[in-house]
Amino acid sequence: MTEYTTRVLNAVRTKNANEPEFLQAVQEVISTIEPVLTAHKKYEDNCILERITEPERTIIFRVPWTDDEGHIRINRGFRVEFNSAIGPYKGGLRFHPSVNLGILKFLGFEQVFKNSLTTLAMGGGKGGSDFDPKGKSDAEVMRFCQSFMTELQRHIGADTDVPAGDIGVGGREIGYLFGQYKRLRNEFTGVLTGKALNWGGSLIRPEATGYGCVYFAQNMLATRGDDVSGKVCTVSGSGNVAQYLVEKLNQLGAKVVTMSDSNGTIYDPAGIDAEKLAWVMELKNVRRGRIKEYAEQFAGSQYMEGQRPWSIPCDCAFPCATQNEINGREAETLVKNGCKLVAEGANMPTDLDGINVYLQSKILYGPAKAANAGGVAVSGLEMAQNSQRLNWTREEVDTKLFDIMKNIHENAYKHAHEYSADCTADFTNYVAGANIAGFVKVADAMIDQGLV
Ligand code: NDP
Ligand code: 2IT
Q1: Which residue in 109, 290, 403, 413 is deepest, having the highest Cβ count within 10 Å?
Q2: How far is the CA of 166 from the centre of ligand 1 (A)?
Q3: In terms of C-beta density within 10 A (0-12 exposed, 13-18 middle, 19 or more buried), how is residue 445 classed?
Q4: What is the per-residue pLDDT for 353?
Protein backbone atom coordinates (compact mmCIF):
# COMPACT_ATOMS: atom_id res chain seq x y z
CA MET A 1 0.00 0.00 0.00
CA THR A 2 1.22 3.55 -0.74
CA GLU A 3 1.14 6.44 1.72
CA TYR A 4 -1.92 7.88 -0.10
CA THR A 5 -4.02 4.72 -0.14
CA THR A 6 -3.07 3.84 3.45
CA ARG A 7 -4.04 7.31 4.65
CA VAL A 8 -7.41 7.29 2.82
CA LEU A 9 -8.27 3.74 3.86
CA ASN A 10 -7.50 4.54 7.51
CA ALA A 11 -9.69 7.64 7.37
CA VAL A 12 -12.54 5.69 5.74
CA ARG A 13 -12.21 3.01 8.46
CA THR A 14 -12.35 5.59 11.25
CA LYS A 15 -15.33 7.40 9.78
CA ASN A 16 -17.37 4.29 8.96
CA ALA A 17 -16.25 1.94 11.71
CA ASN A 18 -19.66 0.31 12.11
CA GLU A 19 -20.15 -0.45 8.40
CA PRO A 20 -18.16 -3.66 7.72
CA GLU A 21 -19.61 -4.38 4.26
CA PHE A 22 -18.86 -0.84 3.09
CA LEU A 23 -15.29 -1.07 4.40
CA GLN A 24 -14.85 -4.42 2.66
CA ALA A 25 -15.97 -2.99 -0.70
CA VAL A 26 -13.75 0.10 -0.33
CA GLN A 27 -10.73 -1.98 0.68
CA GLU A 28 -11.12 -4.24 -2.34
CA VAL A 29 -11.26 -1.30 -4.74
CA ILE A 30 -8.49 0.81 -3.19
CA SER A 31 -6.08 -2.11 -2.91
CA THR A 32 -6.37 -2.88 -6.63
CA ILE A 33 -6.32 0.61 -8.19
CA GLU A 34 -2.97 1.64 -6.68
CA PRO A 35 -1.02 1.26 -9.94
CA VAL A 36 -3.24 3.80 -11.69
CA LEU A 37 -3.03 6.21 -8.74
CA THR A 38 0.76 5.98 -8.80
CA ALA A 39 0.95 6.43 -12.57
CA HIS A 40 -1.34 9.49 -12.57
CA LYS A 41 -0.79 11.96 -9.73
CA LYS A 42 -3.86 13.99 -10.75
CA TYR A 43 -6.11 11.63 -8.79
CA GLU A 44 -4.29 12.26 -5.53
CA ASP A 45 -3.91 15.99 -6.28
CA ASN A 46 -7.70 16.23 -6.71
CA CYS A 47 -8.43 14.09 -3.60
CA ILE A 48 -10.43 11.71 -5.78
CA LEU A 49 -10.22 8.75 -3.35
CA GLU A 50 -11.38 10.90 -0.43
CA ARG A 51 -14.31 12.17 -2.53
CA ILE A 52 -15.31 8.94 -4.26
CA THR A 53 -15.66 7.10 -0.91
CA GLU A 54 -18.14 9.67 0.44
CA PRO A 55 -21.74 9.52 -0.91
CA GLU A 56 -22.92 12.78 -2.45
CA ARG A 57 -26.13 12.52 -0.45
CA THR A 58 -27.74 10.02 1.95
CA ILE A 59 -31.46 10.11 2.68
CA ILE A 60 -32.95 8.19 5.63
CA PHE A 61 -36.66 8.29 6.33
CA ARG A 62 -39.51 6.78 8.32
CA VAL A 63 -41.91 4.47 6.49
CA PRO A 64 -45.18 4.04 8.40
CA TRP A 65 -47.84 1.60 7.15
CA THR A 66 -50.66 -0.56 8.48
CA ASP A 67 -50.78 -4.34 8.26
CA ASP A 68 -53.89 -6.40 7.42
CA GLU A 69 -54.87 -6.56 11.11
CA GLY A 70 -54.85 -2.78 11.28
CA HIS A 71 -51.67 -2.60 13.38
CA ILE A 72 -49.27 0.26 12.76
CA ARG A 73 -45.83 -0.80 11.49
CA ILE A 74 -42.72 1.36 11.11
CA ASN A 75 -39.76 0.62 8.86
CA ARG A 76 -36.69 2.59 7.90
CA GLY A 77 -36.22 3.73 4.30
CA PHE A 78 -32.94 4.75 2.62
CA ARG A 79 -31.57 6.15 -0.61
CA VAL A 80 -27.81 6.55 -0.95
CA GLU A 81 -27.06 8.88 -3.88
CA PHE A 82 -23.41 7.98 -4.20
CA ASN A 83 -21.97 9.53 -7.33
CA SER A 84 -23.45 11.45 -10.29
CA ALA A 85 -20.27 12.29 -12.20
CA ILE A 86 -21.24 10.36 -15.33
CA GLY A 87 -25.06 10.37 -15.17
CA PRO A 88 -28.13 10.39 -12.93
CA TYR A 89 -27.88 8.18 -9.83
CA LYS A 90 -28.92 4.64 -10.84
CA GLY A 91 -29.26 1.48 -8.81
CA GLY A 92 -31.69 -0.88 -7.19
CA LEU A 93 -33.87 -0.92 -4.09
CA ARG A 94 -33.46 -3.80 -1.63
CA PHE A 95 -36.24 -4.83 0.78
CA HIS A 96 -34.79 -7.27 3.31
CA PRO A 97 -34.68 -7.30 7.13
CA SER A 98 -30.86 -7.15 7.06
CA VAL A 99 -30.83 -3.80 5.23
CA ASN A 100 -28.93 -1.00 6.98
CA LEU A 101 -26.95 2.04 5.94
CA GLY A 102 -23.61 0.18 5.69
CA ILE A 103 -25.02 -2.47 3.36
CA LEU A 104 -26.60 0.14 1.10
CA LYS A 105 -23.37 2.16 1.06
CA PHE A 106 -21.43 -0.92 -0.05
CA LEU A 107 -23.99 -1.57 -2.76
CA GLY A 108 -24.03 2.09 -3.87
CA PHE A 109 -20.23 2.24 -3.95
CA GLU A 110 -20.04 -0.92 -6.09
CA GLN A 111 -22.75 0.46 -8.35
CA VAL A 112 -20.66 3.54 -9.20
CA PHE A 113 -17.92 1.40 -10.77
CA LYS A 114 -20.31 -1.16 -12.26
CA ASN A 115 -22.38 1.49 -14.01
CA SER A 116 -19.21 3.10 -15.35
CA LEU A 117 -18.21 -0.26 -16.87
CA THR A 118 -21.50 -0.59 -18.77
CA THR A 119 -20.44 2.31 -21.07
CA LEU A 120 -23.84 3.94 -20.46
CA ALA A 121 -24.38 7.34 -18.79
CA MET A 122 -25.38 6.29 -15.28
CA GLY A 123 -24.11 7.42 -11.88
CA GLY A 124 -24.39 5.14 -8.86
CA GLY A 125 -26.96 4.85 -6.08
CA LYS A 126 -28.77 2.26 -3.98
CA GLY A 127 -31.69 2.28 -1.59
CA GLY A 128 -34.19 0.15 0.20
CA SER A 129 -35.66 -0.74 3.53
CA ASP A 130 -35.48 -3.22 6.38
CA PHE A 131 -39.06 -4.21 5.41
CA ASP A 132 -39.42 -7.99 4.95
CA PRO A 133 -41.80 -8.84 2.08
CA LYS A 134 -41.79 -12.54 3.09
CA GLY A 135 -45.12 -13.66 4.46
CA LYS A 136 -46.81 -10.32 3.68
CA SER A 137 -50.00 -10.13 1.63
CA ASP A 138 -50.06 -8.27 -1.69
CA ALA A 139 -52.15 -5.56 0.00
CA GLU A 140 -49.55 -5.12 2.75
CA VAL A 141 -46.72 -4.93 0.21
CA MET A 142 -48.72 -2.33 -1.73
CA ARG A 143 -49.34 -0.16 1.34
CA PHE A 144 -45.68 -0.37 2.29
CA CYS A 145 -44.53 0.55 -1.25
CA GLN A 146 -46.96 3.49 -1.38
CA SER A 147 -45.70 4.85 1.94
CA PHE A 148 -42.06 4.31 0.90
CA MET A 149 -42.60 6.19 -2.38
CA THR A 150 -44.51 9.02 -0.69
CA GLU A 151 -41.18 10.11 0.78
CA LEU A 152 -38.79 8.84 -1.92
CA GLN A 153 -40.60 10.70 -4.74
CA ARG A 154 -39.24 14.08 -3.69
CA HIS A 155 -35.65 12.86 -4.19
CA ILE A 156 -35.83 10.95 -7.49
CA GLY A 157 -36.70 11.64 -11.14
CA ALA A 158 -35.97 10.38 -14.65
CA ASP A 159 -32.96 12.75 -14.93
CA THR A 160 -32.02 12.76 -11.23
CA ASP A 161 -32.13 9.29 -9.70
CA VAL A 162 -33.69 6.17 -11.23
CA PRO A 163 -34.23 3.22 -8.83
CA ALA A 164 -34.91 -0.40 -9.87
CA GLY A 165 -35.23 -3.81 -8.20
CA ASP A 166 -32.82 -5.86 -6.08
CA ILE A 167 -33.39 -8.47 -3.36
CA GLY A 168 -37.07 -8.45 -2.36
CA VAL A 169 -38.01 -5.92 -5.05
CA GLY A 170 -39.32 -7.42 -8.29
CA GLY A 171 -42.05 -6.63 -10.80
CA ARG A 172 -44.82 -6.49 -8.18
CA GLU A 173 -43.03 -3.93 -6.01
CA ILE A 174 -41.88 -1.81 -8.99
CA GLY A 175 -45.53 -1.65 -10.11
CA TYR A 176 -46.80 -0.37 -6.76
CA LEU A 177 -43.89 2.10 -6.48
CA PHE A 178 -44.45 3.42 -10.01
CA GLY A 179 -48.21 3.80 -9.47
CA GLN A 180 -47.68 5.90 -6.35
CA TYR A 181 -44.99 8.07 -8.02
CA LYS A 182 -47.31 8.78 -10.94
CA ARG A 183 -50.19 9.59 -8.64
CA LEU A 184 -48.19 12.02 -6.50
CA ARG A 185 -46.30 13.75 -9.32
CA ASN A 186 -48.88 13.51 -12.09
CA GLU A 187 -46.08 12.43 -14.46
CA PHE A 188 -45.64 9.28 -16.54
CA THR A 189 -41.85 9.12 -16.80
CA GLY A 190 -39.06 6.57 -16.76
CA VAL A 191 -38.41 7.14 -13.06
CA LEU A 192 -38.01 3.44 -12.29
CA THR A 193 -36.66 0.56 -14.37
CA GLY A 194 -37.79 -3.04 -14.28
CA LYS A 195 -41.30 -1.91 -15.26
CA ALA A 196 -43.77 -4.33 -16.89
CA LEU A 197 -43.81 -4.41 -20.69
CA ASN A 198 -47.21 -2.83 -21.15
CA TRP A 199 -46.31 0.34 -19.21
CA GLY A 200 -42.78 1.23 -20.23
CA GLY A 201 -40.64 -1.79 -19.38
CA SER A 202 -37.98 -3.31 -21.59
CA LEU A 203 -37.88 -6.80 -23.02
CA ILE A 204 -34.96 -8.82 -21.55
CA ARG A 205 -34.74 -6.68 -18.35
CA PRO A 206 -35.92 -9.59 -16.13
CA GLU A 207 -33.41 -11.91 -17.84
CA ALA A 208 -30.56 -9.38 -18.10
CA THR A 209 -28.51 -9.97 -14.94
CA GLY A 210 -28.50 -13.76 -15.23
CA TYR A 211 -28.01 -13.84 -19.01
CA GLY A 212 -25.30 -11.16 -18.80
CA CYS A 213 -23.40 -13.09 -16.13
CA VAL A 214 -23.32 -16.17 -18.36
CA TYR A 215 -22.17 -14.04 -21.32
CA PHE A 216 -19.36 -12.72 -19.14
CA ALA A 217 -18.40 -16.29 -18.14
CA GLN A 218 -18.34 -17.26 -21.83
CA ASN A 219 -15.96 -14.40 -22.58
CA MET A 220 -13.65 -15.46 -19.75
CA LEU A 221 -13.72 -19.11 -20.88
CA ALA A 222 -12.96 -18.08 -24.47
CA THR A 223 -9.60 -16.63 -23.32
CA ARG A 224 -8.66 -20.23 -22.48
CA GLY A 225 -10.21 -21.72 -25.60
CA ASP A 226 -13.09 -23.14 -23.56
CA ASP A 227 -16.90 -22.86 -23.44
CA VAL A 228 -19.76 -23.40 -20.94
CA SER A 229 -21.20 -26.27 -22.96
CA GLY A 230 -21.03 -29.53 -20.97
CA LYS A 231 -19.89 -27.83 -17.77
CA VAL A 232 -21.32 -28.90 -14.40
CA CYS A 233 -22.42 -25.71 -12.64
CA THR A 234 -23.41 -24.84 -9.09
CA VAL A 235 -25.72 -21.86 -8.58
CA SER A 236 -26.86 -20.26 -5.33
CA GLY A 237 -30.12 -18.37 -4.89
CA SER A 238 -33.42 -19.02 -6.64
CA GLY A 239 -34.60 -15.46 -7.24
CA ASN A 240 -34.51 -13.24 -10.31
CA VAL A 241 -30.79 -13.48 -11.05
CA ALA A 242 -30.43 -17.22 -10.37
CA GLN A 243 -33.51 -18.19 -12.40
CA TYR A 244 -32.45 -16.58 -15.67
CA LEU A 245 -28.83 -17.54 -15.17
CA VAL A 246 -29.91 -21.19 -14.99
CA GLU A 247 -32.12 -20.67 -18.07
CA LYS A 248 -29.18 -19.37 -20.12
CA LEU A 249 -26.80 -22.09 -18.88
CA ASN A 250 -29.34 -24.71 -19.94
CA GLN A 251 -29.74 -23.09 -23.37
CA LEU A 252 -25.96 -23.26 -23.84
CA GLY A 253 -25.73 -26.94 -22.91
CA ALA A 254 -24.38 -26.72 -19.36
CA LYS A 255 -25.74 -28.80 -16.47
CA VAL A 256 -26.87 -26.92 -13.33
CA VAL A 257 -26.94 -29.13 -10.25
CA THR A 258 -27.83 -26.75 -7.39
CA MET A 259 -30.08 -23.83 -6.45
CA SER A 260 -30.74 -22.47 -2.96
CA ASP A 261 -32.61 -20.03 -0.75
CA SER A 262 -31.88 -18.64 2.69
CA ASN A 263 -32.96 -21.93 4.31
CA GLY A 264 -30.89 -24.40 2.30
CA THR A 265 -29.70 -25.90 -0.99
CA ILE A 266 -31.14 -28.47 -3.37
CA TYR A 267 -28.72 -30.78 -5.18
CA ASP A 268 -29.98 -32.48 -8.33
CA PRO A 269 -27.19 -34.55 -9.98
CA ALA A 270 -29.41 -35.11 -13.06
CA GLY A 271 -29.53 -31.34 -13.66
CA ILE A 272 -32.18 -28.65 -13.24
CA ASP A 273 -33.46 -28.74 -16.82
CA ALA A 274 -35.91 -26.33 -18.47
CA GLU A 275 -38.97 -28.17 -17.17
CA LYS A 276 -37.69 -28.29 -13.58
CA LEU A 277 -36.68 -24.62 -13.83
CA ALA A 278 -40.22 -23.70 -14.91
CA TRP A 279 -41.43 -25.44 -11.76
CA VAL A 280 -38.93 -23.45 -9.64
CA MET A 281 -40.12 -20.20 -11.24
CA GLU A 282 -43.73 -21.01 -10.40
CA LEU A 283 -42.69 -21.98 -6.85
CA LYS A 284 -40.73 -18.76 -6.26
CA ASN A 285 -42.59 -16.15 -8.31
CA VAL A 286 -46.21 -17.24 -7.96
CA ARG A 287 -46.55 -19.42 -4.86
CA ARG A 288 -43.60 -17.70 -3.09
CA GLY A 289 -42.64 -21.06 -1.54
CA ARG A 290 -39.37 -22.55 -0.23
CA ILE A 291 -36.73 -24.36 -2.35
CA LYS A 292 -36.99 -27.36 -0.01
CA GLU A 293 -40.14 -28.41 -1.90
CA TYR A 294 -37.99 -29.18 -4.98
CA ALA A 295 -36.56 -32.28 -3.32
CA GLU A 296 -40.09 -33.53 -2.56
CA GLN A 297 -41.12 -32.92 -6.19
CA PHE A 298 -38.16 -34.38 -8.12
CA ALA A 299 -36.87 -37.88 -7.32
CA GLY A 300 -33.09 -38.22 -7.24
CA SER A 301 -32.57 -34.74 -5.82
CA GLN A 302 -31.76 -33.94 -2.21
CA TYR A 303 -32.25 -31.01 0.15
CA MET A 304 -29.33 -29.80 2.26
CA GLU A 305 -30.92 -27.86 5.13
CA GLY A 306 -28.96 -24.80 6.27
CA GLN A 307 -26.17 -25.40 3.72
CA ARG A 308 -24.76 -23.46 0.80
CA PRO A 309 -23.92 -25.16 -2.52
CA TRP A 310 -20.12 -24.83 -2.41
CA SER A 311 -19.31 -28.34 -1.15
CA ILE A 312 -20.76 -29.84 -4.35
CA PRO A 313 -18.02 -30.47 -6.97
CA CYS A 314 -18.42 -28.34 -10.10
CA ASP A 315 -16.59 -26.88 -13.11
CA CYS A 316 -18.17 -23.44 -12.73
CA ALA A 317 -19.79 -21.69 -9.75
CA PHE A 318 -22.29 -18.84 -9.94
CA PRO A 319 -23.16 -17.23 -6.59
CA CYS A 320 -26.49 -15.42 -7.13
CA ALA A 321 -27.95 -14.93 -3.63
CA THR A 322 -26.27 -12.31 -1.46
CA GLN A 323 -23.07 -10.74 -0.07
CA ASN A 324 -20.39 -12.81 1.68
CA GLU A 325 -21.93 -16.16 0.80
CA ILE A 326 -18.48 -17.62 -0.05
CA ASN A 327 -15.69 -17.35 2.52
CA GLY A 328 -12.03 -18.36 2.22
CA ARG A 329 -12.67 -21.93 3.32
CA GLU A 330 -15.55 -22.38 0.88
CA ALA A 331 -13.45 -20.89 -1.93
CA GLU A 332 -10.72 -23.43 -1.11
CA THR A 333 -13.26 -26.25 -1.25
CA LEU A 334 -14.48 -25.08 -4.66
CA VAL A 335 -10.95 -24.95 -6.09
CA LYS A 336 -9.93 -28.26 -4.47
CA ASN A 337 -12.97 -29.92 -6.09
CA GLY A 338 -11.91 -28.73 -9.55
CA CYS A 339 -13.85 -25.50 -10.03
CA LYS A 340 -12.29 -23.54 -12.92
CA LEU A 341 -14.53 -20.48 -13.00
CA VAL A 342 -16.48 -18.29 -10.59
CA ALA A 343 -18.76 -15.60 -12.06
CA GLU A 344 -20.66 -13.46 -9.55
CA GLY A 345 -24.36 -12.79 -10.20
CA ALA A 346 -24.81 -11.44 -6.66
CA ASN A 347 -23.09 -8.31 -5.32
CA MET A 348 -19.88 -9.03 -3.34
CA PRO A 349 -20.77 -12.70 -2.74
CA THR A 350 -17.13 -13.62 -2.01
CA ASP A 351 -15.31 -12.21 1.01
CA LEU A 352 -11.75 -10.86 0.76
CA ASP A 353 -10.18 -14.19 1.86
CA GLY A 354 -12.17 -16.01 -0.81
CA ILE A 355 -11.08 -13.57 -3.53
CA ASN A 356 -7.45 -14.17 -2.56
CA VAL A 357 -7.99 -17.93 -2.94
CA TYR A 358 -9.35 -17.45 -6.49
CA LEU A 359 -6.50 -15.12 -7.47
CA GLN A 360 -3.80 -17.35 -6.03
CA SER A 361 -5.18 -20.46 -7.69
CA LYS A 362 -5.49 -18.49 -10.97
CA ILE A 363 -8.96 -19.74 -11.84
CA LEU A 364 -11.18 -17.54 -14.02
CA TYR A 365 -12.83 -15.12 -11.60
CA GLY A 366 -15.42 -12.60 -12.79
CA PRO A 367 -16.07 -10.13 -9.95
CA ALA A 368 -19.61 -8.88 -9.38
CA LYS A 369 -19.24 -5.35 -10.69
CA ALA A 370 -18.23 -6.72 -14.09
CA ALA A 371 -20.09 -10.05 -14.21
CA ASN A 372 -23.51 -8.84 -13.02
CA ALA A 373 -23.52 -5.47 -14.80
CA GLY A 374 -25.95 -6.79 -17.43
CA GLY A 375 -28.95 -6.00 -15.19
CA VAL A 376 -28.22 -2.33 -14.79
CA ALA A 377 -27.04 -2.14 -18.41
CA VAL A 378 -30.48 -3.19 -19.64
CA SER A 379 -31.98 -0.76 -17.12
CA GLY A 380 -29.96 1.86 -19.01
CA LEU A 381 -31.45 0.56 -22.25
CA GLU A 382 -34.92 0.78 -20.68
CA MET A 383 -34.22 4.45 -19.87
CA ALA A 384 -33.11 5.05 -23.46
CA GLN A 385 -36.31 3.47 -24.81
CA ASN A 386 -38.43 5.54 -22.41
CA SER A 387 -36.73 8.75 -23.57
CA GLN A 388 -37.40 7.84 -27.20
CA ARG A 389 -40.92 6.57 -26.41
CA LEU A 390 -40.07 3.46 -28.40
CA ASN A 391 -39.77 -0.26 -27.62
CA TRP A 392 -36.97 -2.36 -29.04
CA THR A 393 -37.43 -6.04 -29.90
CA ARG A 394 -36.20 -8.91 -27.75
CA GLU A 395 -33.43 -9.64 -30.25
CA GLU A 396 -32.29 -6.01 -30.35
CA VAL A 397 -32.01 -5.76 -26.56
CA ASP A 398 -30.36 -9.18 -26.19
CA THR A 399 -27.79 -8.32 -28.87
CA LYS A 400 -27.02 -5.02 -27.13
CA LEU A 401 -26.67 -6.84 -23.79
CA PHE A 402 -24.38 -9.43 -25.37
CA ASP A 403 -22.20 -6.69 -26.89
CA ILE A 404 -22.08 -4.72 -23.63
CA MET A 405 -20.90 -7.79 -21.69
CA LYS A 406 -18.24 -8.47 -24.34
CA ASN A 407 -17.13 -4.87 -24.10
CA ILE A 408 -16.96 -4.98 -20.28
CA HIS A 409 -14.83 -8.12 -20.52
CA GLU A 410 -12.48 -6.53 -23.06
CA ASN A 411 -12.19 -3.34 -21.05
CA ALA A 412 -11.45 -5.18 -17.78
CA TYR A 413 -8.99 -7.47 -19.59
CA LYS A 414 -7.19 -4.52 -21.18
CA HIS A 415 -6.88 -2.51 -17.95
CA ALA A 416 -5.78 -5.60 -16.01
CA HIS A 417 -2.97 -6.35 -18.43
CA GLU A 418 -1.94 -2.69 -18.58
CA TYR A 419 -1.73 -2.12 -14.81
CA SER A 420 -1.84 -5.32 -12.75
CA ALA A 421 1.60 -6.92 -12.30
CA ASP A 422 0.21 -10.42 -11.68
CA CYS A 423 -1.33 -10.77 -15.18
CA THR A 424 0.35 -13.21 -17.59
CA ALA A 425 -0.46 -14.75 -20.95
CA ASP A 426 -2.65 -17.32 -19.12
CA PHE A 427 -3.99 -15.24 -16.26
CA THR A 428 -6.07 -12.08 -16.01
CA ASN A 429 -6.80 -10.33 -12.73
CA TYR A 430 -10.34 -9.17 -13.56
CA VAL A 431 -10.75 -7.67 -10.06
CA ALA A 432 -8.01 -5.15 -10.76
CA GLY A 433 -9.10 -4.71 -14.38
CA ALA A 434 -12.75 -3.99 -13.56
CA ASN A 435 -11.93 -1.67 -10.65
CA ILE A 436 -9.39 0.33 -12.64
CA ALA A 437 -11.52 0.61 -15.79
CA GLY A 438 -14.57 1.64 -13.75
CA PHE A 439 -12.59 4.09 -11.63
CA VAL A 440 -10.75 5.98 -14.39
CA LYS A 441 -13.90 7.05 -16.22
CA VAL A 442 -15.65 8.34 -13.07
CA ALA A 443 -12.51 9.96 -11.63
CA ASP A 444 -11.74 11.80 -14.88
CA ALA A 445 -15.34 13.08 -15.04
CA MET A 446 -15.05 14.31 -11.45
CA ILE A 447 -11.88 16.23 -12.29
CA ASP A 448 -13.49 17.75 -15.41
CA GLN A 449 -16.46 18.97 -13.37
CA GLY A 450 -14.45 20.76 -10.67
CA LEU A 451 -14.79 20.56 -6.92
CA VAL A 452 -18.46 19.70 -6.43
P1 NDP B 1 -34.34 -12.00 -5.31
O2 NDP B 1 -34.98 -11.37 -4.13
O3 NDP B 1 -35.11 -12.24 -6.54
O4 NDP B 1 -33.67 -13.38 -4.89
C5 NDP B 1 -32.73 -13.44 -3.86
C6 NDP B 1 -32.33 -14.89 -3.66
O7 NDP B 1 -31.21 -14.93 -2.77
C8 NDP B 1 -33.41 -15.71 -3.01
O9 NDP B 1 -33.27 -17.04 -3.41
C10 NDP B 1 -33.09 -15.53 -1.54
O11 NDP B 1 -33.60 -16.55 -0.70
C12 NDP B 1 -31.58 -15.57 -1.55
N13 NDP B 1 -31.07 -14.82 -0.41
C14 NDP B 1 -31.31 -13.51 -0.12
N15 NDP B 1 -30.72 -13.17 1.02
C16 NDP B 1 -30.08 -14.28 1.45
C17 NDP B 1 -29.27 -14.56 2.56
N18 NDP B 1 -29.01 -13.61 3.48
N19 NDP B 1 -28.75 -15.81 2.68
C20 NDP B 1 -29.03 -16.76 1.74
N21 NDP B 1 -29.79 -16.55 0.67
C22 NDP B 1 -30.30 -15.33 0.52
O23 NDP B 1 -33.06 -11.06 -5.61
P24 NDP B 1 -32.16 -10.99 -6.93
O25 NDP B 1 -32.10 -12.30 -7.59
O26 NDP B 1 -32.59 -9.80 -7.69
O27 NDP B 1 -30.74 -10.63 -6.29
C28 NDP B 1 -29.77 -11.63 -5.95
C29 NDP B 1 -28.40 -10.99 -5.89
O30 NDP B 1 -28.08 -10.41 -7.18
C31 NDP B 1 -28.24 -9.83 -4.91
O32 NDP B 1 -26.92 -9.83 -4.40
C33 NDP B 1 -28.44 -8.58 -5.77
O34 NDP B 1 -27.84 -7.45 -5.19
C35 NDP B 1 -27.73 -9.04 -7.03
N36 NDP B 1 -28.07 -8.33 -8.26
C37 NDP B 1 -29.36 -8.22 -8.69
C38 NDP B 1 -29.63 -7.58 -9.88
C39 NDP B 1 -31.02 -7.52 -10.43
O40 NDP B 1 -31.16 -7.01 -11.54
N41 NDP B 1 -32.04 -8.02 -9.75
C42 NDP B 1 -28.58 -6.96 -10.68
C43 NDP B 1 -27.24 -7.19 -10.17
C44 NDP B 1 -27.03 -7.84 -9.01
P45 NDP B 1 -34.90 -16.26 0.21
O46 NDP B 1 -36.05 -16.25 -0.74
O47 NDP B 1 -34.92 -17.36 1.20
O48 NDP B 1 -34.67 -14.92 0.86
O1 2IT C 1 -27.15 -4.43 -8.31
C2 2IT C 1 -27.65 -4.06 -9.38
O3 2IT C 1 -26.95 -3.75 -10.35
C4 2IT C 1 -29.11 -4.02 -9.47
N5 2IT C 1 -29.79 -4.41 -8.53
C6 2IT C 1 -29.77 -3.48 -10.71
C7 2IT C 1 -29.81 -1.98 -10.67
C8 2IT C 1 -30.61 -1.33 -11.77
O9 2IT C 1 -30.71 -0.10 -11.70
O10 2IT C 1 -31.10 -1.99 -12.68
Answers
A1: 109
A2: 7
A3: middle
A4: 98
